[in-house]
């Protein structure tokens, strides 16, 4: 298991409903304006803000649409979206830019449609806690307290994703953008060729982007300081061109 910086049991605090969607295996891409500082297990903690019902509805509709691209229409969403809780963990297997993700032919189209931010953390093997732990979170990636980790690791249970994905990372060339009918520099990811599906999918993507804007830099979710040694580790794993960075919001 690879780590970056001084992380031993790294954890990320996320807003709901994005946190639970990731731990339940529905969300496969964690979008950020900064590259992942680690690979390996990442614990997921839900922030204290109670999600608005409209935000939950919007994000669930977004995932219904992108899974429908593959004919999956019976998604089982979490019954609850708890806050101020440690929810579980995922395996971060790598990080690519949005342009690389939307042009990556080897992964399902629905996964490419999740690429809405500067950097896309590739997540596999979700596990959830049978009983989520109450705790306070922090900004950026941070280490779990040892006593919390030791209790949490015993309470994990594997999650079966609606469409499990294994990102083909062994061949570095597989991460390079490839043509699949849409330019990697396009402002919108490729969508289904079905006109009716395309319209509803475009609307769902727009809704998801709008939902994410409520968590802007002014709310304390800005990119971590470069002085915390987060970034050299990811650049050792995968060089990222600074020319691909823009000012898009984080899709939590």
Automatic annotation (TrEMBL):
Q: Where is the ASCH domain?
A: 12-103
- What segment(s) does the record annotate as region Disordered? 164-252
Give residue spans, biased composition: Polar residues: 213-231
Signal sequence: where? none
CDD domains (alphabetical): ASCH_ASC-1_like (cd06554)
Q: Where is the composition biased (Low complexity)?
A: 183-212
Q: Per its record, how is this protein called by name?
A: ASCH domain-containing protein
């Amino acid at each position: 298991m690879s780590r970056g910086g001084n992380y031993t049991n790294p954890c990320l605090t996320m807003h709901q409903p994005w946190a639970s969607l990731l731990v339940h295996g529905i969300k496969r891409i964690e979008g950020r304006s900064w590259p992942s500082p680690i690979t390996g297990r990442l614990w997921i903690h839900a922030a204290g803000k109670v999600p608005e019902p409209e935000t939950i509805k919007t994000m669930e509709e977004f995932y219904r649409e992108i899974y429908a691209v593959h004919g999956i229409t019976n998604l089982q969403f979490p019954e609850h979206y708890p806050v101020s809780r440690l929810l579980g963990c995922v395996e971060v297997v790598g990080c690519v830019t949005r342009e690389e993700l939307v042009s990556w032919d080897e992964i399902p189209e629905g996964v490419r449609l999740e690429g809405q931010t500067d950097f896309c953390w590739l997540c596999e093997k979700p596990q959830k806690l049978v009983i989520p732990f109450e705790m306070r979170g922090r900004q950026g990636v941070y280490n779990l307290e040892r006593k919390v980790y030791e209790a949490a690791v015993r309470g994990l249970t594997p999650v079966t994703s609606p469409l499990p994905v294994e990102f083909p990372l062994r061949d570095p060339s597989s991460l390079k953008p490839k043509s699949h009918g849409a330019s990697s520099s396009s402002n919108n990811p490729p969508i289904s060729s079905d006109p009716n599906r395309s319209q509803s999918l475009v609307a769902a993507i727009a809704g998801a982007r709008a939902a994410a804007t409520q968590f802007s830099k002014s709310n304390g979710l800005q990119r971590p300081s470069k002085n915390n040694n987060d970034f050299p580790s990811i650049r050792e794993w995968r060089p990222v061109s600074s020319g691909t960075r823009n000012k898009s919001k984080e899709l939590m």
